[in-house]
Amino acid sequence: MWLIPAVIVVLVLLLVHAGSRGPAARTLTYSDFVHDVTANDISSAVITSTGLVTGKLHSGTAYTSQLPTALGDTTLSSLLLEHHVQVTGTNPSTTSILSIVVDLLPLLLIVGAVVWFVRRSRKQSPGGIGGIMSIGRSKAKVYDEERPTTRFTDIAGYEGSKAEVMEVVDFLKHPQRYARAGAIGPKGVLMVGPPGTGKTLLARAVAGEAGVPFFALSGSSFVEMFVGVGASRVRGLFVDARKRSPSIIFIDEIDAIGGRRGPGGFGSNDEREQTLNQLLSDMDGFEPGASVVVMAATNRAEILDTALLRPGRFDRTVEIPLPNLSERAAILSIHGRGKEFGPTVDIGAIARGTPGFSGADLANLVNEAAINAVRGHHHILRGADFDAARDRLLIGRRDASNALLPEETHNVAVHEAGHALVAALSEHADPVAKVTILPRGATLGVTEQLPEVERHLYPQSYLTDSLAVRLGGRAAEILVLGEPSTGASNDLAGATDLATRMVREWGFSSELGPIGYGPEGPSRDNPFAGRPYAEETQRSIDQEVARLLRQAESRATTLLQGHRHLLDRVVDLLVERETIDGSDLMALVSLPEPRASAPEDSAGARRSVAPAGRLG
Ligand code: ATP
After folding, report:
1. 292-298 and 247-252 as β-strands: parallel, antiparallel, unpaired?
2. Of 36, 107, 285, 603, which residue is most buried, by most CB within 10 angstroms?
3. Count of domains in the chain?
4. Predicted pLDDT at 415
5. Residue 129 has what pLDDT?
6. Which of these three, 319, 335, 367, is where a domain ends?
7. Residue identifier of the C-alpha nearest atom 19 of ligand 1
8. Residue 18: is it exposed, middle or buried by C-beta count within 10 angstroms (0-12/13-18/19+)?
9. Distance CA 56, CA 52 (A)
């Protein structure tokens, strides 16, 4: 706080000092000086032992000059006296103390500022060395006063995972019980799962249930450009956590530091390894009395260094997968707390329509639905709000800029009707939930299929039907419009990818037989891996993929040809209504209509179960 008065004092002194030196002096060369003396212009001269001359002209102007002492000029004194110049000799050491202090003041000021800055930043960083001297210290955020209030009841589903971490809560609540029995409590819990599945939430709930401080940070915040910084941060973090023991350290994205150590490396790699080594040694080094549990999250457990996973470190691994159907419903209900749902909201149906959604996605969905309600000027959330929210999250936002031309609308309707009808007529395909030709984001139209229950195995018949459904859009275009369009590019890419996996990985090709190849190309474990089969095999794979796709296309074409009138009706309905749902489609399909026989379709339109799909 003394800095501001100090600055003012310095400025005043500088001004006084500058004032005492009077107006800026003219600098004269020695020749000019001698000339001015001879011309009787010089009134006074103060000459130092080093030959510096200062003084005044008769006009009152100050001047300075420097005598060339090397010349040893002995005539100057007589010249000065001859022209009545007041000569004074002086010694530079007699320069005033004030002027020395003033000259040094800028330097003193800088030093003072640095000291002040260091002290101030120390005060702001409690717990010992801090501020700029602690670049390497922990960035952990201690939720000391505001310990997490999250409880297990805030986490929907995941009963197994909660049961696994229950022991950690027990240990943190009663460390003495473990000490009495001579047991070492859990040291580290690794939570593995895709992003947004609630790993952070679970760690916070453990701290909340146990009522202990929670130190949360991300693995990437350890890794800095400078080698050693991360390691010192880890050290600082553990020192703080032990001081507050019992406590929880939560490290998100542990893979940022905990990846497998390689043979040597430079720069950030070195830094990462040092940080990891420090983490390992700090986890080993807990004193018996200190109850600190490290909880870490990752979605790439396979790349973690095995040293992290050995007993005494992360000795418990909890899998947190994407939520299943009932968990999705429970998560939706939790996030629906405090919101009013209208009678058209069917949580079960929303959960069915959101396979692959994480907890975070579902929380976002409910929030988007609430925002939709606000947009529609009502506060009770309706089924339509959830539909719109889901479409927006999955497909993108609708805007006026992607409005279609009238003939394009018809063509998109043909394409989507093709998908929808092949799906409705295929025995093993998912039921169609919705067909729309309203463009959203980059998508011009969508045919959405939804499973009735969640499946974990997909039979060959299901995948074969799925290929036909994917190619149904293009088949309809060729049939009705006489030519295909670019609209099928995503379908083709998806179908080719699926067919390739059917042949390469799942042994669904009679030509190749029961052979399943793993992923192609180099991997972390095997950086030199190439294609695991011969050139000849690749040719067979390509041929088999092409055969499957051609078969799927001809199956779709046959189905649509056999139900051409139905196809036209679906197209008309789509052009008229823009969006039709599964029941509209099935009502059309089940109408008693003259139908050309299609050998594959002898069972008629049937619904089957399998994962959801969306086709553009
Ligand atoms: P990341 O790996 O991206 O860090 P994460 O797995 O740590 O993600 P969280 O940050 O814990 O995920 O979850 C994000 C949000 O998702 C939570 O704040 C919560 O709103 C919601 N959420 C996730 N899972 C659940 C659940 N099981 N019950 C209730 N809400 C959940």
Report:
1. parallel
2. 36
3. 5
4. 94
5. 37
6. 319
7. 360
8. exposed
9. 14
Query: 199 in ligand 1 pocket by Cβ < 6 Å?
Result: yes
Q: Is 161 in the pocket of ligand 1 (CB under 6 A)?
A: no
Smallest CA separation from ligand 1 atom 1, residue: 195
Nearest-atom index, ligand 1, CA of 204: 11
Average pLDDT of every residue of the chain: 79
Q: How many CB atoms lie within 10 A of CB 539?
A: 10
Nearest to 249 by CA among 186, 207, 278, 301: 207
Q: What is the pLDDT of residues 149-163, one digit of tens each?
A: 888 888 888 888 888
Check pocket membership of 186 for ligand 1, CB cut-off 6 A: no
CB distance 195 to ligand 1 below 6 Å: yes
pLDDT score of 326 = 86
Name the residue among 28, 46, 30, 35 with its Cα closest to residue 87. 46
- Claim to verify: residue 480 and residue 386 sit in the same structural domain: no
Report whether the peptide linkage leading into residue 288 is cis, meaning its omega lies within 30 degrees of zero. no
* pLDDT for residue 592: 59
Q: Clarify whether 553 is annotated catalytic.
A: no
**Residue 372 sits in the same domain as residue 424:** no
Distances (CA, A) of 291 to 169, 170, 288: 11, 11, 8
Instruction: Give the DSSP H or E segment for 294.
Output: strand 292-298
Which pLDDT score is estimated for 598?
39
Residues of the chain with pLDDT under 70: 1-23, 92-97, 118-146, 222-229, 258-271, 285-289, 395-403, 441, 519-530, 591-616
Q: Give the distance (Å) from ligand 1 centre to CA of residue 197.
A: 5
1's tokens: 């706080």
Q: Is residue 7 part of a domain?
A: no
Q: Which residues form the domain of 62?
A: 14-94
Residue 216 within any structural domain of the chain: yes
296 lines ligand 1 (CB under 6 A): no
Give the Cα-Cα-Cα angle 419, 420, 421 (nearest 5 degrees). Answer: 95
Q: How far apart are CA 247 and CA 293, in angstroms?
A: 7
Active-site residue, from 164, 416, 477, 544? 416
- Residue 439, ligand 1, Cβ within 6 A: no
Ligand 1 pocket mutation, candidates 192, 201, 299, criterion most atoms within 8 A of CB: 201
